[in-house]
Specification:
The chain is an alpha/beta fold. A 6-stranded mixed beta sheet has the order 3-2-1-4-5-11, sandwiched between helices. A 5-stranded mixed beta sheet has the order 8-7-6-9-10, with helices on both faces. Strand 1 and strand 2 form a beta hairpin. Helix 2 packs parallel to helix 3 and helix 4 packs across helix 10. It is globular, with a radius of gyration of 20 Å.
């Protein structure tokens, strides 16, 4: 089954064709980083306009790369939640129109499920049940994946996502946007024990995350140093901040592994490209004799291939949409 998938939840426009949920026939991605860099972050209205300009041509490119016509496509899939509502609307309306005009089934896909499904492409034999940690600019969720379409939220961020905290700290440090890759590089040469930043926990919710306090602590540290005229060692700040993020992740995952007795772990999302987080989770899984599945760096950030991969299982589960499908910006515990 060949599915044409559309992704436009934030600042990447993407179109892909995926066969049977595992094989990527083509995948085209247009990043908006250069557009938003001058603003220090994603501007929703500008992102939406950029999606409008790109989505049709990218879809055509994906079809051409796969040497396919729309007649040879079996279904149309689209990210409908969560994300920036204006950006989501572009993809949803485009996909609905295409499905209606071509008389194809329409499949709605949750962006979080899509990130998890990137591992189905990278690991063709991976099947639920497993635990999944999705960490990105807008999301930090710990999930218990019971089946391909049955997701149970174990923990979720109560405020900022891990990626959001990385971006804000990087901006205040003068690194610019996006700051994830440079923060990763700086942390490799810094001393992670040089500064003690908080490791937040949520009362009565051992699996939930909170990064607002950590972000504020680092920003205050930087502002205080600036006011005193003290030179800041960016490498040490990056290393200490990253160590705090890794410790909170390790703590939650360790609890979940012990409590749920599941011996498979999946890591996904844009921040899963961070080498320190990868190393932390790899070591944790090694100690607990848990099989770890990681997506390649090319499938960590937003892309339509992961949406097409999950769409296959949604189709088999009968989770189809119709012309009334609307965008939904909310990420909630149901991950539906």
């Amino acid at each position: 089954m060949k599915i044409l998938a559309i992704e436009s939840s934030c600042d990447e426009t993407s179109a892909a064709i995926v066969e049977d949920g595992r094989k990527v026939i083509s995948c085209k991605i247009l990043s908006q980083i250069d557009i938003h860099k001058r603003f220090g972050g994603v501007v929703p209205e500008i992102a939406s306009r950029a999606h409008i300009e790109a989505v049709s041509s990218l879809t055509e490119e994906a079809l051409n790369e796969g040497n396919l016509t729309l007649d040879e496509i079996d279904a149309i899939a689209v990210t409908y939640r969560p994300g920036l509502v204006g950006a989501l609307l572009v993809g949803v309306n485009f996909a609905k129109s295409l499905a209606y005009a071509c008389h194809k089934p329409l499949i709605k896909v949750n962006h979080i499920r899509g990130h998890v499904a990137a591992n189905y492409i990278a690991h063709p034999h991976l099947e639920p049940p497993f635990l999944a940690l999705v960490i990105s600019g807008g999301h930090t969720s710990l999930l218990k994946v019971n089946s391909f379409c049955d997701y149970e939220t174990v923990g979720i961020t109560r405020d900022d996502a891990a990626g959001e905290a990385f971006d804000k700290v990087a901006r205040v440090m003068g690194i610019g946007y996006p700051g994830g890759a440079e923060m990763d590089a700086l942390a490799k040469i810094g001393d992670k024990n040089s500064i003690v930043f908080p490791r937040a926990s949520v009362k009565d919710a051992p699996y939930d995350f909170s990064y607002s306090g950590l972000k504020t602590a680092v920003v205050n540290y930087l502002h205080n140093a600036e006011q005193k005229g003290e030179e800041v060692n960016k490498e040490n700040v990056a290393a200490s901040f990253t160590a705090s993020v890794c410790d909170t992740i390790e703590n939650r995952l360790n609890h979940a592994i012990c409590d749920f007795k599941i011996k498979k772990m999946v890591l996904a999302g844009g921040v899963s490209a961070n080498s320190h987080i990868r190393a932390c989770v790899e070591e944790l899984c090694r100690k607990n004799k848990v099989d770890l599945y990681l997506p390649p760096l090319s499938l960590c950030s937003d892309n339509a291939a992961m949406i097409g991969a999950q769409a296959y299982w949604e189709f088999l589960g009968g989770n189809l949409a119709d012309i009334t499908l609307n965008a939904n910006p909310v990420n909630d515990k149901f991950v539906n």
